[in-house]
Design a protein that fits this description.
This protein is α/β, with parallel strands linked by helices and 424 residues long. It contains 17 helices and eight strands. The strands form two sheets. Strands 1, 2, 3, 4, 5 and 6 form a six-stranded mixed beta sheet that branches. The protein has a two-stranded antiparallel ribbon with strand order 7-8. The protein is elongated and about 90 Å long.
Length: 424
Amino acid sequence: MRESFLHFLWRWRRFDAQNLCTTTGLPIEILHPGEWNTHAGPDFFNARLRIAGTLWAGNVEIHLRASEWLAHRHSDDPSYDNVVLHVVLEEDQPVLRGNGGEPIPCLELKGRIPPRVLETYQRLEHERAWIPCQGFLPAVPEIIRLNWLDRLLVERLEQKTGAIAEMLATTENHWETAFYRLLARSFGLKVNAEPFEALARSLPLLLLAKHKNNPKQVEALIFGQAGMLEGPFSDDYPNGLAAEYRFLQHKYSLVPLASGQWKFLRLRPANFPTVRLAQFCALVNQSVHLFSGVLEARNLRELENLFEVQPHAYWLTHFQFDKPSVKRAKTAGRDFVHLLIVNTIAPFLFHYGKTKMLETYQKRALGLLEEIPAEANTIIDGWAELGIRARNAYHTQSLIQLKTRWCDAKRCLECAIGNAVLKQ
């Protein structure tokens, strides 16, 4: 048994409270269990209890065994001086307040846990199914699931904004530069995220802005800094870019990335880093003020138009330099743009709105996720097999958060769905 189970029992009063008394026989009446504390200090603040007819207001500390009070050195911590009740599964020894002071009233829960609640908890703890509550899920009211998923979406966005805050800190709160770097990272997907971000860091946005009216120079800077113009080449296009880059490299004292950082293995040709770099070039050539464009976009369609760019004509018949292929458009497709919105644009808008206290942008971020079709991946397939089908990216992001951050970690006792199962 984990201590968190006792937290659940106390918080929701899911134990037998008939003839409740301390281990020394003093009657207890719980007026309010207190506010659950997930940080340092006692487990519940501001509880209100009546013990032997006396009204007490203070904190409640919970342990599996009373001796853990001493093991955790609470007697030496002033923040525990206001504990009015020690709730334990088993009192293996009495606990005194401070150093040798009066005994702290103790409530022992052993023998008071309803068998059905205990059995359900043990099933959740030891379940080896895809999610712990798999067998109980159909009985959980839909309103509980939906409200919890709404909360988890905000939690997921706030987790993603952690990386945004860190990036802003390294760019002196320059929103355009931070967005440019994280957008570049998203272009690399998981496989090439690191070299893409390194490329953006090595190639300042202000430098690209100096050459915004010369697409060939922008392409030369991006491919050259990526270390992909070392040649020799047979085709005129990469040779021209290489010559342009040599001039710009000398002018700005640029140091390119090692070309070996880029990964092609097991990628579909459409996801080759050369293709994604070509699309990124087209996007930067269209505008170096990318985040301003995002802020101005009023709906999903305008964002799609902003990011569905067409690279240089050379890439119609190539996936890599000097390797001709069947003619095929290399536009940044709608599915890829939706991926950018989900992973970078929506979190950026959400964080911008929160930082600037502009709720409009937070709502716009949530609205974009509602407009984007549901993502397709193994996690969403798993939920579908359990009868939970996502309607849009708003739901898929929530379900991914639930599976990866809650179900996999077996946080059932903190989860609204797990709580509903235990309360059945």
